[in-house]
Design a protein that fits this description.
Layout: H1 4-14, H2 16-25, H3 28-41, E1 47-51, H4 59-64, E2 68-73, H5 76-85, E3 90-93, E4 106-111, H6 123-133, E5 134-145, E6 149-157, E7 160-166, H7 169-178, E8 182-193, E9 196-206, H8 210-214
Parallel strand pairs: 1-2, 1-4, 2-3, 4-5
Antiparallel strand pairs: 5-9, 6-7, 8-9
């Protein structure tokens, strides 16, 4: 039986080039807005972890111009493209839920349109680990679901089957707070995707400073 993660990895392998072109022209306003949060809010050379880097464009390339970026993706083909597209970042082919980083390794963790491919029961543990990977004051910027989906497969998404799973907005906000984050903003954005309106929750959260955590 094919696992959900195999569906995601093989799907993105199959549609890699098509997805790269699609991503450059879809929901570009949101990508630009939330990439700017990092570009404007972090010091040059800050350590940034991108979960679900895809082919490295457009987001990874922008981030790597200013920061020390580590990109992670489940798809081997996406990682190949990312390494070709962005030569001044490091890339890891891995399941983000199995990653192990030292505590307080990063100034920011970014997850644009990637957490929505995880079985949602794995999200709370991952978000808690992300909080630990961040330095005090570190930023977490992520796309999450706005409506509940216990797990579904779209048989033809850009030319391949694809798996989705996520909680609703209220549950996601509670989950992020429970992981120890302070939510800076949590906004739903709806945009057209191939003729259909699709809504996501965008989270900007911060790991509290040491002083606040001890207060």
């Amino acid at each position: 039986m094919t696992s959900t993660k195999q569906i995601v990895s093989e799907g993105y392998d199959r549609i890699a080039e098509r997805y790269a072109a699609w991503a450059m022209q879809t929901r570009d306003e949101e990508r630009e807005r939330y990439t700017a949060v990092l570009l404007d809010g972090l010091r040059p050379g800050a350590a940034v972890l991108e979960l679900g880097c895809g082919p490295g464009v457009p987001t990874t390339r922008r981030l790597a111009e200013q920061f020390d970026v580590t990109g992670v993706d489940l798809s081997a083909r996406q990682i190949e493209l990312a390494r070709a597209n962005v030569t001044d970042a490091r890339f890891v082919h891995a399941d983000m839920t199995t990653l192990a980083f030292a505590e307080e390794s990063f100034d920011a963790v970014v997850a644009f349109y990637s957490l929505i491919h995880l079985p949602r029961e794995e999200l709370p543990g991952l978000v808690t680990r992300i909080a630990g990977w961040l330095r005090p004051g570190g930023i977490f910027v992520a796309t999450m679901g706005a409506h509940a989906d216990a797990g579904s497969i779209e048989e033809d998404w850009l030319g391949a089957p694809m798996y989705w799973s996520h909680f609703d907005s209220a549950t996601n906000r509670k989950m992020v707070t429970a992981a120890g984050f302070e939510i800076v903003s949590a906004a739903e954005h709806t945009a057209d995707e191939d003729g259909e309106p699709v809504t996501f929750l965008w989270i900007i959260a911060r790991r509290p400073s040491l002083m606040k955590r001890l207060a």
